[in-house]
């Protein structure tokens, strides 16, 4: 298997990062007890009782061994309800800002995000992005489930946007299947830029595993990476029923801002 640091990182791809001092995955291997405490005692039972989530296709997720959970991204609630749908832990990514706060609030925030199965995103590029790729691979090489939102950011209008190729790089490097996943109604529960929406039943759908072993050894071919990513996004679209837009979500958000402001911002 090629060394991870030989792979170029696509600008904007969001993966996880490694602690540069000891090469440890922040928020992944640690905090396991806290994760299960949140899921099974402090948070999970209440969420299930109030929202009554609906799960479809959970049998498509392997009961053991590594796999990538590639999901659409409608709301901050996505990373709450998807793990509740499975018995296995899913390690997700989160903005590094959530792990760098100070004082009591910062400490509680770090413990919460680490304890709910999240690790920090590094958006700075360069060598830091290489470390991010190493960390994502390490989660999978431990035989765990790694959750990723290929769109890279939340959809601002409920549409499904073009995926970043980080999901393809991980699938080829780790030689693991990708489980296309769709969440529905989470944007109603926790709308963008609002504290709370309405109590509705969120739906989590897991599709059949996608096997990309036919592309093994082609992880440096950008056309192959795009082909894999588009296949993943198409599978997510079929599950979610969303309208697909062949544009990155960040670009779409910027265009929306410009249109709302009557011109370039």
From TrEMBL:
Keyword Disulfide bond: no
Ranges in a coiled coil: none
Matching InterPro entries: Plipid/glycerol_acylTrfase
Pfam family name, one: Acyltransferase
Alphabetical UniProt keywords: Acyltransferase, Transferase
Taxonomy, superkingdom: Bacteria
Positions of the Phospholipid/glycerol acyltransferase domain: 67-186
GO (cellular component) term, any one: plasma membrane
Single biological process term from Gene Ontology: phosphatidic acid biosynthetic process
GO molecular function, one term: 1-acylglycerol-3-phosphate O-acyltransferase activity
PANTHER family, per the entry: 1-ACYL-SN-GLYCEROL-3-PHOSPHATE ACYLTRANSFERASE
Name of the featured protein: 1-acyl-sn-glycerol-3-phosphate acyltransferase
């Amino acid at each position: 298997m090629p060394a991870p640091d030989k792979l170029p990182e696509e600008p904007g791809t969001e993966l996880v990062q490694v602690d540069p001092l000891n090469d440890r995955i922040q928020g992944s291997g640690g905090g396991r007890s806290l994760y299960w405490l949140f899921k099974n005692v402090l948070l999970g039972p209440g969420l299930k009782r109030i929202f009554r989530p609906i799960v479809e296709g959970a049998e498509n997720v392997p009961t053991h061994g590594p796999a990538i959970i590639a999901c659409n991204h409608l709301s901050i609630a996505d990373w709450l309800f998807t793990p509740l749908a499975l018995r296995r832990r899913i390690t997700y990514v989160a903005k590094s800002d959530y792990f760098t706060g100070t004082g009591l609030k910062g400490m509680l925030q770090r413990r919460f995000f680490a304890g709910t199965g999240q690790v920090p995103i590094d958006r700075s590029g360069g060598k830091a992005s290489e470390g991010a790729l190493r960390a994502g691979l390490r989660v999978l090489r431990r035989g765990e489930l790694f959750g990723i939102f290929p769109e890279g950011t939340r959809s601002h209008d409920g549409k499904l946007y073009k995926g970043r190729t980080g999901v393809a790089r991980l699938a080829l490097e780790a030689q693991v299947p990708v489980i296309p996943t769709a969440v529905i109604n989470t944007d109603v529960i926790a709308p963008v830029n609002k504290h709370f929406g309405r109590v509705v039943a969120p739906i989590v759908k897991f599709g059949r595993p996608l096997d990309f072993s036919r592309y093994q050894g082609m992880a440096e071919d950008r056309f192959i990476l795009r082909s894999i990513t588009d296949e993943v996004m198409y599978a997510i679209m079929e599950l979610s029923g969303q309208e697909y837009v062949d544009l990155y979500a960040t670009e779409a958000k910027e265009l929306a801002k410009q249109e709302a402001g009557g011109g370039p911002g």
